[in-house]
Amino acid sequence: EIVMTQSPATLSVSPGERATLSCRASQSVSSNLAWYQQKPGQAPRLLIYGASTRATGIPARFSGSGSGTEFTLTISSLQSEDFAVYYCQQYNNWPLVTFGQGTKLEIK
Amino acid sequence: QLQLQESGPGLVKPSETLSLTCTVSGGSISSSSYYWGWIRQPPGKGLEWIGSIYYSGSTYYNPSLKSRVTISVDTSKNQFSLKLSSVTAADTAVYYCARPYCTNGVCEEGWFDPWGQGTLVTVSS
């Protein structure tokens, strides 16, 4: 099983600033990585797939980068609605997809 | 717009079988060409893929749960279901059903969207 490790566990950032979230895979997943946003009491929402492609309707302030084992989700200018938990997910080993443990993005 | 809705008991006793159904609206399981998934999330924790099913009934399961999981499909009702046997408190979680993401008419396995709203199942006597 491919283990996904996200850092930091919690990130405190002020509105309007940039947030950078990291995700590391225990082995190469090529570009087969997705990012999700989850708000309290809601299901996850797909933000990024293919490591860097935004899903339909996702604002341009969300961007993904990386390949192999190291990935980054960047939110360029944080809006109030962006404070949530973010998960990465690998699907290189489909159907055995695995998720990171999440990064909580909180208001500083 | 495709929607998924989970349903089933919110409380299950230890050692019994958890049973959930996902009802799909706004789209047809029988005309799909991808695997529909079940994913769970223990309270305050991360996400775990449970398994996936094709309209024909072909299934994949997470090896860590395989001995206890059965996923089935009923295309006449546009539903697919999850059964998890011999449950313990560790199976307490929000259970989601989900579909692979589709864009411009192309659906690719691997990442999920949309998801159902999720249903909390508590295992307790």
Write up what this structure looks like:
- The complex is a heterodimer of chains A (about 110) and B (about 120).
- Chain A has about 110 residues and is an all-beta fold.
- In chain A, strand 9 and strand 10 (about 100) form a beta hairpin.
- Chain A has no helices and 11 strands.
- The mean pLDDT of chain A is about 95.
- In chain A, the strands form 2 sheets. In chain A, strands 2, 4, 5, 6, 9, 10 and 11 form a 7-stranded mixed β-sheet that branches.
- Chain A starts with a strand and ends with a strand.
- Chain A has strands at about 5, 10-15, 20-25, 35-40, 45-50, 55, 60-65, 70-75, 85-90, 100, 105.
- Chain A is about 0% helix and about 50% strand.
- Chain A is globular, with a radius of gyration of 13 Å.
- With about 120 residues, chain B is mainly beta.
- Chain B has no helices and 11 strands.
- Chain B has strands at about 5, 10, 20-25, 35-40, 50-55, 60, 70-75, 80-85, 95-105, 105-115, 120-125.
- In chain B, strands 2, 4, 5, 6, 9, 10 and 11 form a 7-stranded mixed β-sheet that branches.
- In chain B, strand 4 and strand 5 (about 50-55) form a beta hairpin.
- The chains are: A mainly beta (about 110), B mainly beta (about 120).
- The interface of A and B includes residues 91 and 99 of A.
Tags for this model:
heterodimer; A: 108 residues; mainly beta; seven-stranded mixed β-sheet; 11 strands; 49% strand; globular; B: 125 residues; four-stranded antiparallel β-sheet
